Amino acid sequence: MRRLQRSPMRSFSKGSFHYCRSRLIRLVVFVLIILAATLIALEREIIRIYNRPIRNAETVFSSASLSAHLRPPPSPFRTLGGGYAGLDFDDRYVYLRDLGRGCEGVTRLYEDRVTGQVVVIKSWFEPGRNRLPAEMQEVFHDLMPKWPAEIPATLVFAGLDANSQTTEASYDRLGFLPAVEYFAATSSKNARSKNQHTWHLVTPYISGGTLEDPAAWIRQEGLNTPQDLDVEFRSSFNRTLVLLETLHTKGYCHDDVKMDNILVLGPYDWILSDLGNVREIQHPYHYNPDWKRKGQ
After folding, report:
1. Under a CB-based contact definition with an 8 Å cutoff, are residues 153 and 250 in contact?
2. Pairing mode, if any, of strands 105-112 and 118-124?
3. Rounded to whole angstroms, how far apart are CA atoms 283 and 60?
4. pLDDT 10s digits, 149-164
5. DSSP 8-state class, residue 125
6. Rounded to whole angstroms, how far apart are CA atoms 54 and 277?
């Protein structure tokens, strides 16, 4: 009897079907992953756009606090230009090097020729989110209707050390980094105009760096476990928490506590810096959906 042989065409068709189905499934999964990633990115962008005006809403300081702490700077206007990098301010602040750059501005290291101290100058790209108080508008000739919230926050919570006479030990007592000076500047290449001024805040330079820097020292000391770190730094962390509690008691939140914003005076002495995100507790940013979603 003649043996029936399986048709090669039938076998090929069956194999092709399974192969095509497998590829189709992989394609569908790939498309779904791309679609999910796109939707997540779109959601984040929508939240970011929605939060922008809320996040940039003005931080409200009481009139009493502003009146008690606001002092006009000795030189409200300075000129940016000169020096080997073209970044000196008048004949007082001599540019040394860049420290960092972000979306809102740049931070640079300067030598103060008046005091002989090394200082940090933070320069903003945009005017800021707070309205300039009426008494300060006269000082700045109505050229600067707004200023960064970090300037009044620093003046209110840390004060003004115009002569740079305060020692680092005193900074530890204050808890926050004080201001040396603040001013508006325009480039020497441009005539003074309403849209060409930028804000600048001068603060002392803390040579100990930030809380990110002691990592090497911690390794050298053999502090490898959470228990070791707790024993070594509990009092330092506690002082930082007390400082934040004091801020909260006054009705404000720092809103940007991170290792890079904690300056190190010594291994166990830390102070808070960068008050640019300080907001009152009732600020609308603290009630937006993204804030609640993160459990903050």
Report:
1. no
2. antiparallel
3. 8
4. 999 999 999 888 766 5
5. S
6. 12
Distance (Å, whole) CA 79 – CA 197:
10
Count of H-run helices and E-run strands, the chain: 8, 12
Q: Long-range pairs for 207-211 at CB < 8 Å and ≥24 separation?
A: 208/263, 208/264, 208/265, 208/266, 209/263, 209/264, 210/259, 210/260, 210/261, 210/262, 210/263, 210/264, 211/259, 211/260, 211/262, 211/263, 211/264, 211/270
Could you tell me where the DSSP H helices lie in the chain? 8-55, 63-69, 134-139, 150-157, 168-174, 215-220, 226-249, 289-293
CA dihedral 84→76→166→218, nearest 10 degrees, is -50
CA-closest candidate to residue 184, choices 127, 105, 99, 110:
127
Single out the residue of 180, 197, 190 nearest to residue 145, CA to CA.
197
* Locus of tokens 């680092």: 168
Q: How far apart are CA 222 and CA 209, in angstroms?
A: 21
Which of 178, 174, 175 is closest to 153 using CA atoms?
178
The rounded distance, in Å, linking the Cα atoms of 58 and 45 is 22
Q: Do 105 and 122 contact (CB within 8 A), yes or no?
A: yes
Distance of alpha carbon 222 from alpha carbon 224, whole angstroms: 6
- 242-287 pLDDT, tens per residue? 999 999 999 999 999 998 899 988 878 889 999 999 999 999 888 8
- Answer whether 0.85 is exceeded by the pTM: no
Q: Give the tokens for residue 60.
A: 């409200």
Coil vs helix vs strand at 261: helix
Angle (CA) 120 118 208, round 5°:
75
What's the distance, Cα to Cα, between the start and end of the chain in Å?
Answer: 83
